[in-house]
Amino acid sequence: MAQNLWGARFQKELDALVNEFNSSIKTDSLMYSQDIQGSLAHAEMLCKQGIIEESDYNDIVCGLTQIKNEIDNGALVIDMNAEDIHMFIEGELTKRYPKAGKKLHTSRSRNDQVALDVRLYLRDKIVSLNESLKNLISAIYEVAKENVDTVMPGYTHLQRAQPVTFAHHLIAYSAMFMRDYDRLNDTKKRLNFSPLGSCALAGTTYDIDRDFTASKLGFTAPVFNSMDGVSDRDFCVELASDIALIMMHLSRFSEEIILWSSWEFKFIELDDAYSTGSSIMPQKKNPDIAELVRGKTGRAYGNLITLLTLLKGLPLAYNKDMQEDKEAIFDSVETALKCLNVFAPMLRTMVVLKENMAKAGEKGFINATDCADYLAKKGMPFREAYKVSGSLVALCIQKGKTLNELSLDDYKAFSQLFECDIYEAIDMTTCLNKRTSKGAPSRVAVEEQLKIVENFLND
Predict the structure, then answer these.
(1) CA-based radius of gyration for the chain
(2) Residue 328: inside a domain, yes or no?
(3) pLDDT tens for residues 84-119?
């Protein structure tokens, strides 16, 4: 006879290979704390409603508390041969309190139990993700604040374009991660509804109080349709999508760090604690942490596609396919947390090579637009000014000079509008500090942006 708690109508033991194939405990054992949390709320509701006796409730509380404490401290090892964490905990409770343990599952199915546990677990993980995001944004803020006046070239098409500061560049990533933080909070709002009491799919004949358990567990309200309660995994897909965006932003940042730390750029140097060497080339200092973050982004994308594909053909309500949701979303969560938690200290410990950034700006003609603006402000149509400035760049390339190194005669050969003040107009500091529009790289504008980030961190 089958020994599973669901095996009453079966005449044969489950095949050993099938049992292993069917088991999910290697993944869902992560939710043992949330499973016990949900069971305690469910038992309290059963007692309050008079569905079980108070003595049974007390035994259930005692048993579940013991089990949690023992798992926490290692005295009780979760049996990886069990079908899932829900059956393991209920079986363990029933061993200790046979009468009360057998009453715990009254008016509850594994379908709503699993759905509840996943929501509780992911709600906790969203809090952890947001804490890690805030820590990363704080690290960016700290480095940016030290580099408000650090001039560097801004790029388009990976070509030097216009002058910015390192602070301005970094704050762009703060903006991305702040949006990620908001997205996670939005997902948490939609996730925060209790499926408990949906049972298998059609609710229960018992006089349960779903509002009580929802409130007890910190949910906004119960899921209002029992079939949706057990079959909804939108919140998993939404969180996986949020994480895919977080990882995409981390990957873009990683790519820049990899470029900046190369000899071709040499804008930064990573701390030895966040770099590795080569087994054959003794001179190498590799940005492996950034490369790994960039590589792990593919896992997050794959998990999102896994969940979308998993759900796309499922009829209502619960289907065993949905057991596969946890491995994908749990992996995404843990991948993102690991990447966020290693990224922040990597930024805090890197050395910014300010002189190299400034030299790259001067050699890249990134003040050419300011040269054109100089002429336009003196009355020359911008398109003509653009052409003159481009011709001056061509002359610089021919002579091996920068715009700052051309003589006034060189300038006047292209337009008599040029005067001595052209040198001040194309000075990098002037170019930066004239860009005072909101969001621009001038010191005034960057300090406003830093204040926005600071307010976010203090909120």
Answers:
(1) 31
(2) yes
(3) 999 999 999 999 999 999 999 999 999 999 999 999
Structure tokens, 350: 């890197």
Task: Please give the Cα distance from 233 to 195 (Å, whole number).
Answer: 11
* Phi and psi angles of residue 269, each rounded to the nearest 5 degrees, phi first: -130, 125
CATH number (domain holding residue 91): 1.10.275.10
Terminal CA-CA length for the chain? 59
Domain boundary among 359, 374, 406: 359
Asked whether the CA dihedral 315, 319, 324, 325 is positive or negative, the reply is positive
Given the residues 42, 132, 168, 278, the one annotated as active site: 278
Does residue 304 sit in the same domain as residue 436? no
Q: Is 42 labeled as catalytic in the residue annotation?
A: no
Helix (H) or strand (E) holding 162: strand 159-165
| Alpha carbon 242 to its chain's center | 6
Residue 213 belongs to a domain = no
Give per-residue pLDDT as tens, 27-85. Answer: 999 999 999 999 999 999 999 999 999 999 999 999 999 999 999 999 999 999 898 99
Q: Which residue is catalytic, options 157, 279, 407, 437? A: 157
Residues 6+ apart with CB under 8 A from 223: 193, 194, 195, 198, 229, 232
- What's the total number of domains in the chain? 3
Residue 194 shares a structural domain with residue 327: yes
Q: Are residues 441 and 394 in the same domain?
A: yes
Burial of 8 (0-12, 13-18, 19+ CB in 10 A): exposed
Active site residue 169: no
Domain final residue pick, 309, 324, 359: 359
**How far apart, in whole angstroms, are the C-alpha atoms of residue 42 and residue 288?**
48
8 A C-beta contact, residue 276 and residue 294: no
Q: Is residue 241 part of a domain?
A: yes
Q: How far is residue 11 from each of residues 7, 67, 82, 83, 243, measured CA to CA in Å?
A: 8, 31, 19, 18, 45
Closest CA to 39 of 79, 95, 2, 94: 94
159-165 vs 221-222, strand pairing mode? unpaired
